[in-house]
Specification:
With 175 residues, this protein is α+β, with helices and mostly antiparallel strands. The chain contains 6 helices and 5 strands, in the order αβαβαβαββαα. Strands 2-3-1-4-5 form a 5-stranded antiparallel sheet. The termini are far apart.
């Protein structure tokens, strides 16, 4: 078997990992400890992000002709890819959090919803809250005026009820 035929299953695996992805982020991982890598992988996995290390040439073959082809210049040196199909900002957000605490780890660049971003752009994307967090903020914003309105109505009802004696406590009628 030729070397190309042996590597084709890996290229197909990479294609299946990135197929339908909202974001693919290239990460330089060289120099981090096994413990740091394990923690990073665990958090990524818990957030539905696939994190794998492949040879750059195989990644280049897999992304050739796809919307992720713009990532090719970042595929130099030791590279891992973090891929999310559900939350476009999750890979960048989680890796950026570890970049702050783990010195050698760095974001190289990435493709988010079809757009290429450099390392600086990925850092900016990492600042965007998750979809769930944005939805909860929206719900809180929508719920706040309704809650305040209900409080005002309740206070008005309580005040208007203060001056009137309840029917059970009415004075007996004169005979």
């Amino acid at each position: 078997m030729a070397k190309v035929e042996l590597k084709q299953p890996i290229v197909d695996e990479i294609k299946s990992v990135i197929d339908g992805a909202q974001s693919v982020v290239a990460v330089r991982y060289l120099g981090i400890t096994v413990d740091q890598d394990t923690k990073l992988r665990k958090e990524l996995r818990e957030n539905g992000v696939v994190y794998k290390v492949y040879k750059n040439t195989l990644i280049k073959r897999a992304i050739d002709g796809t919307e992720f082809a713009g990532l090719e210049p970042d595929l130099e040196g030791p590279t891992a890819i973090a891929v999310s199909k559900t939350d476009a900002t999750a890979p960048a957000r989680i890796v950026a959090k570890y970049v702050k605490t783990v010195g050698p780890l760095e974001l190289k660049g990435g493709i988010v919803e079809g757009e290429y971003y450099s390392a600086e752009g990925m850092t900016a994307i990492a600042a965007i809250p998750s979809r769930d967090e944005l939805l909860s903020r929206l719900l809180g914003s929508l719920q706040s005026p309704i809650t305040n309105f209900a409080r005002v109505l309740n206070q008005v009802a309580e005040k208007s009820g203060e001056g009137v004696a309840p029917a059970a406590e009415e004075a007996p009628a004169a005979e």
